[in-house]
Amino acid sequence: MRYVSTRGGGEEEGIEEALRRGYARDGGLYVPKTIRELEEGELERLSRLQFRELCTEILLWFASEELSEEEVRGVVQSCFEGFSSEEIIPLTMLSGRGAPEDGSVLVAELFHGPSMSFKDFGQQVLCKLLNMFAQKKKNKISILVSTTGDTGPAAIMAARGLEALKVVVTYPHGQISKFQELQMTTEDANNVFVYSFQGGGDDMDAPIKTLSTDVSFQERHGLAAVNSINIGRVIMQSVHYFWSYFRAVEKLKLPVGSSVDFALPCGALGNAAAGLLAKKMGLPIRRIVCGTNMNDIFHRAISSGDFSRHDKMIRTLSEAINIQVPYNFERIIYFLSGGDHKLVKDLMGRMSETGRIQVEGELLQSLQENFASQRVTDEEMLEASQAQRSCMLEEDYLMDPHTAVGYAAIRRSVLLWRAPGGACKDGNVVLLATAHPCKFEDAITEVGRGGRERGGWRRSDLMWVRGRRRGGREAVAQGGGRGSEGDLCRRWERNGWRRTKRECDRRASRSS
Ligand SMILES: *Cc1c(COP(=O)(O)O)cnc(C)c1O
Protein backbone atom coordinates (compact mmCIF):
# COMPACT_ATOMS: atom_id res chain seq x y z
CA MET A 1 0.00 0.00 0.00
CA ARG A 2 1.23 3.48 -0.82
CA TYR A 3 0.42 6.52 1.27
CA VAL A 4 -0.24 10.01 -0.02
CA SER A 5 -0.84 13.35 1.62
CA THR A 6 -4.44 14.52 2.01
CA ARG A 7 -3.24 17.75 0.35
CA GLY A 8 -1.72 16.00 -2.64
CA GLY A 9 1.82 17.37 -2.23
CA GLY A 10 5.08 15.56 -1.49
CA GLU A 11 5.81 12.03 -2.52
CA GLU A 12 4.08 8.75 -2.06
CA GLU A 13 5.50 6.75 0.80
CA GLY A 14 5.35 3.21 2.05
CA ILE A 15 3.95 2.40 5.45
CA GLU A 16 7.27 2.71 7.24
CA GLU A 17 7.82 6.31 6.17
CA ALA A 18 4.18 7.21 6.70
CA LEU A 19 4.25 5.90 10.26
CA ARG A 20 7.58 7.44 11.05
CA ARG A 21 6.85 10.88 9.67
CA GLY A 22 3.38 11.33 11.11
CA TYR A 23 2.75 14.47 9.02
CA ALA A 24 3.25 14.39 5.28
CA ARG A 25 5.92 16.72 3.90
CA ASP A 26 3.39 19.28 2.70
CA GLY A 27 1.79 19.52 6.15
CA GLY A 28 -1.11 17.26 5.20
CA LEU A 29 -1.91 13.90 6.77
CA TYR A 30 -1.12 10.53 5.28
CA VAL A 31 -3.96 8.48 3.85
CA PRO A 32 -3.83 5.17 1.99
CA LYS A 33 -3.71 5.83 -1.75
CA THR A 34 -6.46 3.33 -2.36
CA ILE A 35 -8.86 1.77 0.09
CA ARG A 36 -9.36 -1.92 -0.26
CA GLU A 37 -13.04 -2.72 -0.34
CA LEU A 38 -14.45 -5.98 0.96
CA GLU A 39 -15.28 -8.59 -1.60
CA GLU A 40 -18.50 -10.55 -1.81
CA GLY A 41 -18.84 -12.85 1.18
CA GLU A 42 -15.74 -11.50 2.84
CA LEU A 43 -17.57 -9.86 5.72
CA GLU A 44 -19.00 -13.23 6.66
CA ARG A 45 -15.54 -14.80 6.63
CA LEU A 46 -14.01 -12.00 8.72
CA SER A 47 -16.80 -12.34 11.26
CA ARG A 48 -15.51 -15.79 12.19
CA LEU A 49 -11.94 -14.71 12.93
CA GLN A 50 -10.44 -14.38 16.38
CA PHE A 51 -9.43 -10.87 17.36
CA ARG A 52 -5.73 -11.31 16.65
CA GLU A 53 -6.38 -12.91 13.28
CA LEU A 54 -8.77 -10.15 12.30
CA CYS A 55 -6.23 -7.58 13.34
CA THR A 56 -3.43 -9.27 11.42
CA GLU A 57 -5.53 -9.52 8.29
CA ILE A 58 -6.65 -5.90 8.30
CA LEU A 59 -3.17 -4.60 9.07
CA LEU A 60 -1.80 -6.66 6.20
CA TRP A 61 -4.18 -4.98 3.78
CA PHE A 62 -2.43 -1.75 4.64
CA ALA A 63 1.12 -3.00 4.77
CA SER A 64 1.54 -6.12 2.69
CA GLU A 65 4.14 -4.62 0.35
CA GLU A 66 6.56 -3.87 3.12
CA LEU A 67 5.79 -6.37 5.82
CA SER A 68 5.51 -10.12 5.72
CA GLU A 69 2.58 -11.92 7.24
CA GLU A 70 5.01 -13.37 9.79
CA GLU A 71 6.13 -9.94 10.88
CA VAL A 72 2.62 -8.58 11.26
CA ARG A 73 1.52 -11.65 13.14
CA GLY A 74 4.46 -11.29 15.51
CA VAL A 75 3.71 -7.63 16.17
CA VAL A 76 0.04 -8.34 16.77
CA GLN A 77 0.89 -11.11 19.23
CA SER A 78 3.13 -8.83 21.25
CA CYS A 79 0.54 -6.03 21.28
CA PHE A 80 -2.27 -7.74 23.11
CA GLU A 81 -0.37 -9.59 25.78
CA GLY A 82 -1.09 -6.86 28.29
CA PHE A 83 -4.87 -6.94 27.88
CA SER A 84 -6.95 -8.10 30.79
CA SER A 85 -9.86 -9.49 28.80
CA GLU A 86 -9.60 -12.66 26.75
CA GLU A 87 -11.94 -11.16 24.14
CA ILE A 88 -9.79 -8.00 24.02
CA ILE A 89 -12.98 -5.96 23.44
CA PRO A 90 -15.94 -7.40 25.35
CA LEU A 91 -19.42 -6.12 24.51
CA THR A 92 -22.13 -5.53 27.10
CA MET A 93 -25.75 -4.99 26.17
CA LEU A 94 -27.60 -2.20 27.96
CA SER A 95 -31.34 -2.19 28.00
CA GLY A 96 -34.01 -0.96 30.35
CA ARG A 97 -34.60 2.48 31.71
CA GLY A 98 -31.37 4.12 30.76
CA ALA A 99 -31.43 3.01 27.16
CA PRO A 100 -33.66 4.10 24.29
CA GLU A 101 -36.94 2.17 24.32
CA ASP A 102 -36.57 -0.10 21.39
CA GLY A 103 -33.31 -1.04 19.87
CA SER A 104 -30.33 -1.83 21.95
CA VAL A 105 -27.22 -0.09 23.07
CA LEU A 106 -24.20 -2.34 23.13
CA VAL A 107 -21.18 -1.01 24.91
CA ALA A 108 -17.90 -2.06 23.34
CA GLU A 109 -15.32 -1.81 26.09
CA LEU A 110 -12.13 -0.60 24.55
CA PHE A 111 -10.40 -0.10 27.88
CA HIS A 112 -8.96 -3.46 28.80
CA GLY A 113 -5.47 -2.59 27.68
CA PRO A 114 -2.53 -1.73 29.94
CA SER A 115 -3.34 1.99 30.27
CA MET A 116 -7.10 1.43 30.40
CA SER A 117 -8.21 3.56 27.45
CA PHE A 118 -8.91 2.79 23.79
CA LYS A 119 -5.69 4.53 22.88
CA ASP A 120 -3.82 1.36 23.80
CA PHE A 121 -4.90 -0.19 20.50
CA GLY A 122 -3.32 2.35 18.22
CA GLN A 123 -0.28 2.98 20.38
CA GLN A 124 0.61 -0.65 20.94
CA VAL A 125 0.64 -1.45 17.25
CA LEU A 126 2.28 1.79 16.22
CA CYS A 127 5.08 1.67 18.78
CA LYS A 128 5.83 -1.97 18.15
CA LEU A 129 5.96 -1.41 14.40
CA LEU A 130 8.21 1.63 14.78
CA ASN A 131 10.50 -0.34 17.05
CA MET A 132 10.70 -3.14 14.51
CA PHE A 133 11.51 -0.75 11.66
CA ALA A 134 14.19 0.97 13.72
CA GLN A 135 15.76 -2.30 14.80
CA LYS A 136 15.94 -3.51 11.22
CA LYS A 137 17.81 -0.35 10.29
CA LYS A 138 19.82 -0.37 13.49
CA ASN A 139 18.81 3.18 14.33
CA LYS A 140 16.70 4.82 17.03
CA ILE A 141 13.39 6.64 16.98
CA SER A 142 12.22 9.36 19.36
CA ILE A 143 8.51 9.57 19.82
CA LEU A 144 7.02 12.94 20.64
CA VAL A 145 3.56 12.95 22.19
CA SER A 146 1.37 15.64 23.66
CA THR A 147 -1.55 14.24 25.54
CA THR A 148 -4.94 15.27 26.90
CA GLY A 149 -4.53 12.42 29.35
CA ASP A 150 -4.84 9.04 27.68
CA THR A 151 -2.45 9.12 24.72
CA GLY A 152 0.55 9.64 26.99
CA PRO A 153 0.02 6.64 29.27
CA ALA A 154 -0.85 4.48 26.26
CA ALA A 155 2.32 5.51 24.41
CA ILE A 156 4.44 5.03 27.51
CA MET A 157 3.06 1.58 28.17
CA ALA A 158 3.46 0.59 24.55
CA ALA A 159 7.02 1.83 24.28
CA ARG A 160 8.53 1.28 27.69
CA GLY A 161 11.53 -0.93 27.52
CA LEU A 162 11.56 -1.12 23.71
CA GLU A 163 15.18 -0.84 22.74
CA ALA A 164 14.99 1.35 19.69
CA LEU A 165 12.42 3.84 21.03
CA LYS A 166 12.61 6.87 23.25
CA VAL A 167 9.34 8.53 24.35
CA VAL A 168 8.92 12.18 25.26
CA VAL A 169 5.47 13.10 26.58
CA THR A 170 4.05 16.53 27.41
CA TYR A 171 0.73 17.16 29.14
CA PRO A 172 -1.20 20.32 30.09
CA HIS A 173 -0.58 21.00 33.76
CA GLY A 174 -3.58 20.38 36.00
CA GLN A 175 -5.82 19.27 33.14
CA ILE A 176 -5.54 15.54 33.33
CA SER A 177 -6.71 13.29 36.11
CA LYS A 178 -4.44 12.41 38.99
CA PHE A 179 -4.62 8.80 37.96
CA GLN A 180 -3.39 9.61 34.46
CA GLU A 181 -0.67 11.86 35.76
CA LEU A 182 0.59 9.13 38.05
CA GLN A 183 0.39 6.56 35.28
CA MET A 184 2.99 8.65 33.48
CA THR A 185 5.10 10.18 36.22
CA THR A 186 5.64 6.95 38.12
CA GLU A 187 7.02 5.21 35.07
CA ASP A 188 10.71 4.54 35.56
CA ALA A 189 11.71 2.87 32.31
CA ASN A 190 14.82 4.68 31.13
CA ASN A 191 13.43 5.40 27.66
CA VAL A 192 10.51 7.48 29.00
CA PHE A 193 10.57 11.27 29.63
CA VAL A 194 7.52 13.18 30.89
CA TYR A 195 6.96 16.97 31.11
CA SER A 196 3.97 19.18 31.91
CA PHE A 197 3.26 22.60 30.37
CA GLN A 198 0.94 25.53 31.01
CA GLY A 199 -1.83 25.68 28.43
CA GLY A 200 -4.66 23.75 26.85
CA GLY A 201 -4.97 20.31 25.31
CA ASP A 202 -4.09 21.35 21.79
CA ASP A 203 -1.56 24.08 22.55
CA MET A 204 1.25 21.63 21.90
CA ASP A 205 -0.04 20.68 18.46
CA ALA A 206 1.54 23.62 16.67
CA PRO A 207 5.05 23.20 18.14
CA ILE A 208 4.94 19.45 17.53
CA LYS A 209 3.84 20.06 13.99
CA THR A 210 6.69 22.55 13.49
CA LEU A 211 9.22 20.00 14.70
CA SER A 212 7.65 17.15 12.79
CA THR A 213 7.62 18.99 9.49
CA ASP A 214 11.18 20.32 9.95
CA VAL A 215 12.86 17.65 7.89
CA SER A 216 16.41 18.23 9.12
CA PHE A 217 15.40 18.27 12.79
CA GLN A 218 13.31 15.20 12.21
CA GLU A 219 16.17 13.31 10.60
CA ARG A 220 18.68 14.41 13.20
CA HIS A 221 16.58 13.10 16.07
CA GLY A 222 14.78 10.26 14.35
CA LEU A 223 11.59 12.02 15.39
CA ALA A 224 8.18 10.39 15.04
CA ALA A 225 4.82 11.91 16.01
CA VAL A 226 2.36 9.38 17.37
CA ASN A 227 -0.68 11.58 18.05
CA SER A 228 -3.72 10.57 16.07
CA ILE A 229 -2.38 12.44 13.06
CA ASN A 230 -0.47 9.20 12.66
CA ILE A 231 -2.19 7.01 10.09
CA GLY A 232 -1.07 3.90 11.97
CA ARG A 233 -3.42 4.70 14.80
CA VAL A 234 -6.35 5.35 12.50
CA ILE A 235 -5.80 2.08 10.66
CA MET A 236 -5.54 0.11 13.86
CA GLN A 237 -8.66 1.74 15.26
CA SER A 238 -10.66 0.68 12.23
CA VAL A 239 -10.12 -2.87 13.51
CA HIS A 240 -12.13 -2.24 16.65
CA TYR A 241 -15.11 -1.16 14.54
CA PHE A 242 -14.99 -4.45 12.65
CA TRP A 243 -14.64 -6.51 15.80
CA SER A 244 -17.37 -4.65 17.70
CA TYR A 245 -19.67 -4.84 14.70
CA PHE A 246 -19.33 -8.61 14.43
CA ARG A 247 -19.88 -9.19 18.14
CA ALA A 248 -22.85 -6.80 18.13
CA VAL A 249 -24.74 -8.52 15.31
CA GLU A 250 -23.96 -11.83 16.96
CA LYS A 251 -25.47 -10.67 20.24
CA LEU A 252 -28.45 -9.14 18.49
CA LYS A 253 -28.94 -12.28 16.40
CA LEU A 254 -28.88 -10.25 13.22
CA PRO A 255 -27.40 -11.52 9.97
CA VAL A 256 -23.88 -10.32 9.16
CA GLY A 257 -24.41 -7.42 6.78
CA SER A 258 -27.18 -5.71 8.80
CA SER A 259 -26.39 -2.10 9.39
CA VAL A 260 -25.82 -0.64 12.83
CA ASP A 261 -25.00 2.80 14.18
CA PHE A 262 -21.90 3.56 16.19
CA ALA A 263 -21.63 6.25 18.83
CA LEU A 264 -18.58 7.67 20.53
CA PRO A 265 -17.14 10.69 22.31
CA CYS A 266 -15.14 12.78 19.84
CA GLY A 267 -12.03 14.85 20.43
CA ALA A 268 -9.31 14.97 17.80
CA LEU A 269 -11.52 12.74 15.62
CA GLY A 270 -9.01 9.94 15.17
CA ASN A 271 -11.57 7.41 16.27
CA ALA A 272 -14.31 8.96 14.12
CA ALA A 273 -11.98 8.97 11.09
CA ALA A 274 -11.24 5.29 11.76
CA GLY A 275 -14.98 4.57 11.73
CA LEU A 276 -15.32 6.31 8.40
CA LEU A 277 -12.37 4.33 7.05
CA ALA A 278 -14.03 1.08 8.18
CA LYS A 279 -17.22 2.18 6.48
CA LYS A 280 -15.28 2.96 3.29
CA MET A 281 -13.87 -0.55 3.40
CA GLY A 282 -17.42 -1.83 3.39
CA LEU A 283 -18.39 -2.34 7.02
CA PRO A 284 -22.15 -1.69 7.18
CA ILE A 285 -22.10 1.27 9.54
CA ARG A 286 -25.13 3.45 9.03
CA ARG A 287 -24.17 6.49 10.95
CA ILE A 288 -21.47 7.52 13.37
CA VAL A 289 -23.02 9.44 16.24
CA CYS A 290 -20.51 11.86 17.69
CA GLY A 291 -20.77 13.37 21.13
CA THR A 292 -18.73 16.47 21.77
CA ASN A 293 -18.57 18.44 24.99
CA MET A 294 -18.81 22.25 24.97
CA ASN A 295 -15.69 22.34 22.79
CA ASP A 296 -18.10 21.64 20.00
CA ILE A 297 -16.37 22.47 16.74
CA PHE A 298 -17.21 19.14 15.12
CA HIS A 299 -20.81 19.37 16.24
CA ARG A 300 -21.08 22.83 14.67
CA ALA A 301 -19.49 21.53 11.48
CA ILE A 302 -22.01 18.73 11.19
CA SER A 303 -25.02 20.87 12.13
CA SER A 304 -24.34 23.85 9.91
CA GLY A 305 -20.96 23.51 8.23
CA ASP A 306 -19.39 25.98 10.65
CA PHE A 307 -15.89 24.67 11.34
CA SER A 308 -14.41 27.56 13.26
CA ARG A 309 -12.05 27.77 16.16
CA HIS A 310 -13.36 29.39 19.35
CA ASP A 311 -11.03 31.68 21.24
CA LYS A 312 -11.02 29.75 24.43
CA MET A 313 -10.87 26.13 25.32
CA ILE A 314 -13.66 25.32 27.78
CA ARG A 315 -12.79 23.19 30.79
CA THR A 316 -15.16 20.24 31.22
CA LEU A 317 -15.38 16.96 33.09
CA SER A 318 -14.49 15.10 29.89
CA GLU A 319 -11.07 16.64 29.45
CA ALA A 320 -9.71 14.17 26.92
CA ILE A 321 -12.06 15.71 24.38
CA ASN A 322 -11.43 19.38 25.16
CA ILE A 323 -10.22 19.94 21.62
CA GLN A 324 -10.53 23.20 19.74
CA VAL A 325 -9.33 22.12 16.31
CA PRO A 326 -9.54 18.36 15.71
CA TYR A 327 -6.81 17.52 13.24
CA ASN A 328 -8.47 14.43 11.81
CA PHE A 329 -11.22 16.59 10.35
CA GLU A 330 -8.80 16.86 7.45
CA ARG A 331 -8.92 13.10 6.86
CA ILE A 332 -12.66 13.07 7.22
CA ILE A 333 -13.18 15.65 4.50
CA TYR A 334 -10.62 13.87 2.36
CA PHE A 335 -12.54 10.59 2.60
CA LEU A 336 -15.93 12.27 2.18
CA SER A 337 -14.87 14.24 -0.88
CA GLY A 338 -13.65 11.06 -2.57
CA GLY A 339 -10.01 12.10 -2.21
CA ASP A 340 -10.24 15.66 -3.53
CA HIS A 341 -6.70 16.88 -2.70
CA LYS A 342 -7.30 20.34 -4.03
CA LEU A 343 -10.41 20.90 -1.95
CA VAL A 344 -8.67 19.67 1.20
CA LYS A 345 -5.63 21.84 0.58
CA ASP A 346 -7.83 24.85 -0.04
CA LEU A 347 -9.96 24.38 3.05
CA MET A 348 -7.06 23.57 5.36
CA GLY A 349 -5.05 26.50 4.06
CA ARG A 350 -7.94 28.81 4.83
CA MET A 351 -8.41 27.20 8.24
CA SER A 352 -4.84 27.84 9.30
CA GLU A 353 -4.98 31.42 8.00
CA THR A 354 -8.30 32.51 9.40
CA GLY A 355 -9.28 29.88 11.96
CA ARG A 356 -12.60 29.29 10.26
CA ILE A 357 -14.08 27.57 7.24
CA GLN A 358 -17.59 27.01 6.06
CA VAL A 359 -18.35 23.52 4.78
CA GLU A 360 -20.98 23.64 2.06
CA GLY A 361 -22.84 21.81 -0.67
CA GLU A 362 -22.16 18.16 -1.32
CA LEU A 363 -19.45 17.94 1.26
CA LEU A 364 -21.77 19.15 4.01
CA GLN A 365 -24.47 16.79 2.81
CA SER A 366 -22.09 13.88 2.89
CA LEU A 367 -20.90 14.88 6.35
CA GLN A 368 -24.50 14.84 7.55
CA GLU A 369 -25.25 11.51 5.91
CA ASN A 370 -22.32 9.80 7.55
CA PHE A 371 -22.32 11.49 10.93
CA ALA A 372 -24.80 12.69 13.49
CA SER A 373 -23.74 14.77 16.45
CA GLN A 374 -24.79 16.24 19.76
CA ARG A 375 -23.16 18.82 21.97
CA VAL A 376 -23.31 17.57 25.52
CA THR A 377 -22.90 19.82 28.56
CA ASP A 378 -21.39 18.50 31.77
CA GLU A 379 -24.88 18.52 33.29
CA GLU A 380 -26.24 16.42 30.46
CA MET A 381 -23.28 14.09 30.67
CA LEU A 382 -23.88 13.66 34.40
CA GLU A 383 -27.56 13.16 33.76
CA ALA A 384 -26.82 10.48 31.19
CA SER A 385 -24.51 8.84 33.68
CA GLN A 386 -27.28 9.11 36.22
CA ALA A 387 -29.84 7.56 33.93
CA GLN A 388 -27.44 4.85 33.14
CA ARG A 389 -26.59 4.55 36.82
CA SER A 390 -30.21 4.09 37.73
CA CYS A 391 -30.44 1.27 35.28
CA MET A 392 -27.04 0.19 36.40
CA LEU A 393 -28.51 -1.62 39.35
CA GLU A 394 -30.11 -3.93 36.85
CA GLU A 395 -27.44 -3.51 34.24
CA ASP A 396 -24.41 -3.39 36.46
CA TYR A 397 -22.88 -0.66 34.41
CA LEU A 398 -20.92 2.50 35.05
CA MET A 399 -19.31 4.64 32.35
CA ASP A 400 -16.42 7.03 32.38
CA PRO A 401 -17.32 10.69 31.62
CA HIS A 402 -16.25 10.46 27.97
CA THR A 403 -18.24 7.37 27.24
CA ALA A 404 -21.13 9.11 29.00
CA VAL A 405 -20.86 11.95 26.47
CA GLY A 406 -21.29 9.38 23.73
CA TYR A 407 -24.18 7.85 25.60
CA ALA A 408 -25.89 11.21 26.05
CA ALA A 409 -25.50 11.76 22.31
CA ILE A 410 -27.22 8.44 21.60
CA ARG A 411 -30.10 9.19 23.90
CA ARG A 412 -30.79 12.43 22.16
CA SER A 413 -30.10 11.40 18.57
CA VAL A 414 -31.95 8.15 18.64
CA LEU A 415 -34.98 9.71 20.26
CA LEU A 416 -34.99 12.31 17.50
CA TRP A 417 -34.70 9.69 14.81
CA ARG A 418 -37.53 7.70 16.26
CA ALA A 419 -39.87 10.67 16.55
CA PRO A 420 -42.70 10.75 14.00
CA GLY A 421 -41.11 11.61 10.69
CA GLY A 422 -37.69 10.80 12.10
CA ALA A 423 -34.99 9.01 10.19
CA CYS A 424 -35.32 5.46 11.43
CA LYS A 425 -37.35 3.09 13.49
CA ASP A 426 -34.91 0.52 14.64
CA GLY A 427 -31.75 1.66 16.23
CA ASN A 428 -29.12 -0.68 17.40
CA VAL A 429 -26.18 1.35 18.48
CA VAL A 430 -22.71 0.25 19.42
CA LEU A 431 -21.29 2.70 21.94
CA LEU A 432 -17.52 2.80 22.04
CA ALA A 433 -16.47 2.96 25.69
CA THR A 434 -13.20 4.81 25.43
CA ALA A 435 -11.81 4.60 28.96
CA HIS A 436 -12.22 2.79 32.25
CA PRO A 437 -14.21 4.85 34.80
CA CYS A 438 -11.50 4.37 37.40
CA LYS A 439 -9.31 6.83 35.50
CA PHE A 440 -11.65 9.73 36.29
CA GLU A 441 -12.25 9.84 39.98
CA ASP A 442 -13.43 13.46 40.16
CA ALA A 443 -16.01 13.09 37.44
CA ILE A 444 -17.33 9.83 38.81
CA THR A 445 -17.63 11.40 42.24
CA GLU A 446 -19.54 14.18 40.53
CA VAL A 447 -21.98 11.62 39.13
CA GLY A 448 -22.72 10.66 42.70
CA ARG A 449 -23.27 14.26 43.71
CA GLY A 450 -25.35 14.93 40.62
CA GLY A 451 -28.10 12.77 41.99
CA ARG A 452 -28.68 15.33 44.73
CA GLU A 453 -32.43 15.57 44.22
CA ARG A 454 -32.59 11.86 44.28
CA GLY A 455 -30.46 11.70 47.39
CA GLY A 456 -27.03 11.24 45.89
CA TRP A 457 -25.43 7.87 45.73
CA ARG A 458 -27.30 5.02 47.21
CA ARG A 459 -25.37 2.63 49.34
CA SER A 460 -25.95 -0.17 46.88
CA ASP A 461 -24.55 2.01 44.11
CA LEU A 462 -21.47 2.67 46.09
CA MET A 463 -20.95 -0.98 46.72
CA TRP A 464 -21.32 -1.54 43.07
CA VAL A 465 -18.87 1.10 41.98
CA ARG A 466 -16.42 -0.27 44.44
CA GLY A 467 -16.77 -3.71 42.96
CA ARG A 468 -16.41 -2.24 39.54
CA ARG A 469 -13.28 -0.42 40.46
CA ARG A 470 -11.88 -3.47 42.02
CA GLY A 471 -12.48 -5.03 38.63
CA GLY A 472 -10.35 -2.21 37.29
CA ARG A 473 -7.59 -2.96 39.70
CA GLU A 474 -7.68 -6.58 38.82
CA ALA A 475 -7.55 -5.57 35.21
CA VAL A 476 -4.32 -3.75 35.90
CA ALA A 477 -2.91 -6.58 37.93
CA GLN A 478 -3.80 -9.17 35.34
CA GLY A 479 -2.83 -6.90 32.52
CA GLY A 480 0.81 -7.28 33.32
CA GLY A 481 0.64 -3.84 34.90
CA ARG A 482 3.33 -3.14 37.40
CA GLY A 483 3.22 -2.51 41.09
CA SER A 484 2.91 1.21 40.70
CA GLU A 485 -0.34 0.94 38.77
CA GLY A 486 -1.83 -1.45 41.22
CA ASP A 487 -0.88 1.09 43.86
CA LEU A 488 -2.59 3.81 41.91
CA CYS A 489 -5.81 1.91 42.02
CA ARG A 490 -5.42 1.20 45.70
CA ARG A 491 -4.70 4.86 46.35
CA TRP A 492 -7.78 5.75 44.40
CA GLU A 493 -9.73 3.30 46.38
CA ARG A 494 -8.52 4.77 49.66
CA ASN A 495 -8.86 8.45 48.87
CA GLY A 496 -11.47 8.71 46.16
CA TRP A 497 -13.64 6.18 47.75
CA ARG A 498 -13.56 7.88 51.13
CA ARG A 499 -14.31 11.23 49.64
CA THR A 500 -17.28 9.87 47.74
CA LYS A 501 -18.55 8.12 50.79
CA ARG A 502 -18.13 11.20 52.99
CA GLU A 503 -20.11 13.21 50.51
CA CYS A 504 -22.80 10.58 50.48
CA ASP A 505 -23.03 10.39 54.26
CA ARG A 506 -23.14 14.16 54.54
CA ARG A 507 -26.10 14.34 52.17
CA ALA A 508 -27.84 11.48 53.86
CA SER A 509 -27.57 13.13 57.29
CA ARG A 510 -28.72 16.46 55.86
CA SER A 511 -31.82 14.99 54.27
CA SER A 512 -32.82 12.97 57.31
C1 LIG B 1 -8.69 10.49 23.24
C2 LIG B 1 -9.98 10.18 23.85
C3 LIG B 1 -11.18 10.44 23.17
C4 LIG B 1 -11.22 11.12 21.84
O1 LIG B 1 -10.73 10.36 20.79
P1 LIG B 1 -10.32 11.05 19.41
O2 LIG B 1 -9.86 9.96 18.56
O3 LIG B 1 -9.25 12.03 19.74
O4 LIG B 1 -11.54 11.75 18.90
C5 LIG B 1 -12.35 10.04 23.78
N1 LIG B 1 -12.37 9.45 25.00
C6 LIG B 1 -11.24 9.21 25.68
C7 LIG B 1 -11.33 8.57 27.01
C8 LIG B 1 -10.00 9.56 25.14
O5 LIG B 1 -8.88 9.32 25.81
Automatic annotation (TrEMBL):
A molecular function GO annotation: threonine synthase activity
InterPro entries: Thr_synth_N (IPR029144), Thr_synth_N_sf (IPR037158), Thr_synthase-like (IPR004450), Threonine_Synthase (IPR051166), TrpB-like_PALP (IPR001926), TrpB-like_PALP_sf (IPR036052)
Obligatory cofactor(s): pyridoxal 5'-phosphate
Domain Tryptophan synthase beta chain-like PALP: 105-416
GO BP terms, alphabetized: threonine biosynthetic process
Modification N6-(pyridoxal phosphate)lysine, positions: 119
One matching Pfam family: Thr_synth_N
The entry's keywords: Lyase, Pyridoxal phosphate
Residue span(s) of domain Threonine synthase N-terminal: 2-80
Record-stated family: Belongs to the threonine synthase family.
NCBIfam families: thrC
Name of the featured protein: Threonine synthase
Organism: Guillardia theta (strain CCMP2712) (Cryptophyte)
